[in-house]
Amino acid sequence: MLQYKSSRSQPTSESGNCSVAIVGAGQSGLLMALGLLDRGYRVTLVTNRDSDAIVRGRVMSSQCMFGEALRIERDLGSRCWDSTCPTVDGIGLAVAHPEQPGRKVIDWAARLNRPAMSVDQRIKMSVWLNDARSRGAEVELREAGVPDLESLTASHDLVLVSAGKGSVADLFLPDPRRTQFHQPQRTLACTYLHGLEPTEDFSRVAFSIVPGVGECVVFPALTVSGPCHIVMFEGIPGGPMDCFNDMPSPKQHLERSRALLKTYLPWEYARCSNVQLTDEYATLSGRFTPCVRQPVATLPSGRHVLGMADSVVLNDPITGQGANSAAKCCEIYLDSILRHGDGPFSADWMLNTFERYWDYAQYVVQWTNTMLMPRPAHILKVLAAAGEHASLASSIANSFDDPREFFPWWIDASESERCIAAHSGVKRAGF
User: Fold this and answer.
1) Is 419 exposed, middle or buried (CB count within 10 Å of its CB: 0-12, 13-18, 19+)?
2) How far is CA 84 from CA 129, 222, 224, 227, in A?
3) Number of other CB atoms surrounding residue 430 within 10 Å
4) How far is residue 269's CA from residue 267's CA, in Å, rounded to a whole number?
5) Whole-angstrom distance, CA of residue 262 vs CA of residue 125
6) Are the beta carbons of 357 and 307 closer than 8 angstroms?
7) Where are the alpha helices (DSSP H) in 77-185?
8) Which terminus of the chain is more exposed, N or C, with fewer CB under 10 A?
């Protein structure tokens, strides 16, 4: 198992005696803790697992961090695995022919302006949790509930909730104005593999769409046993990819994954002749409903807590934005805290802080939600045109780093025509 130690410099004090409690030690909660500690804040972290349990547990996600999110991580947290993590240098898109199995109607790839990286969150969270403790955070190991929040709000100036599950997360009520779905739109299955053959020319997030069946995403990553690849299935409920609900053993999970690739994505199956699971906890499956929640929860005492990242804006992973959005949420919240200073953190301040994040997150939500529905003709036309126009393929690929760049053409057919026309000077994409 790989071991990592942080080389982060010592924090600088900027905050006085302000204290912040963070419930949940994931992407946003740990980054926030590290950022606050570096600026002299007193931080309490409440989490239900210690670093050893995290690194020795089951994989937690299929994350891929793009350039801006990596920049935030380097500014706020440690990146001691950069020298060993393979880079993701591009984005590729394939759309399977709906009537001719094994053939594609769209197939292109384009390089990213800044490489992406995927680090198994077991590595990342265990390192960051140890870093937070070594920098002075008080780490409390327990499953937090409402009584814990009451205690924390009484003893801290601000309480942030970054836990996406449990009774604490349930305090944040769905926002009907911003929530589109009321049931899961995909069934999810994730597998970490050694031995998968790399793509030609440059490494990439290989995104494949099988109309009426679902999607598959394959990309290089770093896990506890070294460099690997992650295979993520996004199955339409009730369809052929919806075959992991019985919680199969790791071996069965791998066998079913290979069978799906062989049947629906033979171009990916061809890369899997010598694959094996990276470890005994290298598989994950499940489903959840995308949801936007009210960001401020009121406790029985009348005191308030502020939700962040997945606890209040939960997207399907189909667009790979979960961890990226969590990092960006953390940066926005941290900036609001620093600007606010040592005064009381009112409910109005909490709501305004979330709305700053929503100014960005609304585009991620809208883009991701459209990817869960049948793609309109104008979107398919742009995606197909990217196979002919290199600059368009590059624009689409790099918009994964900032999904605001997909708008307005992603939702407006007339704007999509203008988008194609603007990129019509270059004839060949990616390779």
Assistant:
1) buried
2) 20, 8, 11, 8
3) 21
4) 6
5) 34
6) no
7) 121-134, 146-155, 166-169
8) N
Q: How far is CA 240 from CA 107, 184, 187, 215, 410, in A?
A: 23, 16, 10, 11, 28
> How far is it, in rounded angstroms, from Cα 40 to Cα 235?
46
Q: How far apart are the first and last CA of the chain?
A: 36
Torsion of CA 282, 288, 291, 295, to 10 degrees: -60
Angle in degrees, CA 192, 196, 202, rounded to 5: 110
Q: Which spans in 161-287 are helix H?
A: 166-169, 250-264, 266-269
Taking a C-beta distance cutoff of 8 angstroms, is the pair 51, 130 a contact?
Answer: yes
**Cα–Cα nearest to 196, from 297, 281, 102, 268:** 268
Determine which helix (DSSP H) or strand (DSSP E) holds 296, and give its type and residue range: strand 296-298
> 326 phi and psi, to 5 degrees?
-60, -40
3-state secondary structure of 118: coil
Going by the DSSP 8-state scheme, the letter that residue 380 receives in this structure is H
Assess contact for 118 and 230: CB atoms under 8 A.
Answer: yes
How distant is the alpha carbon of residue 254 from its chain centre?
23
Q: And the tokens for 267?
A: 């171009």
Q: Which tens digits make up the pLDDT trace of 59-114?
A: 999 999 999 999 999 999 888 999 999 999 999 999 999 888 889 999 999 999 99
Q: Say what the pLDDT of residue 5 is.
A: 57
pLDDT per residue as tens digits for the range 253-308: 999 999 999 999 999 999 999 999 999 999 999 999 999 999 999 999 999 999 99
Per-residue model confidence (pLDDT) at position 17: 82
DSSP H/E element including 188 = strand 187-194
By the 8 A CB rule, do 140 and 45 touch?
yes
Nearest-angstrom CA–CA distance, 306 and 67: 27
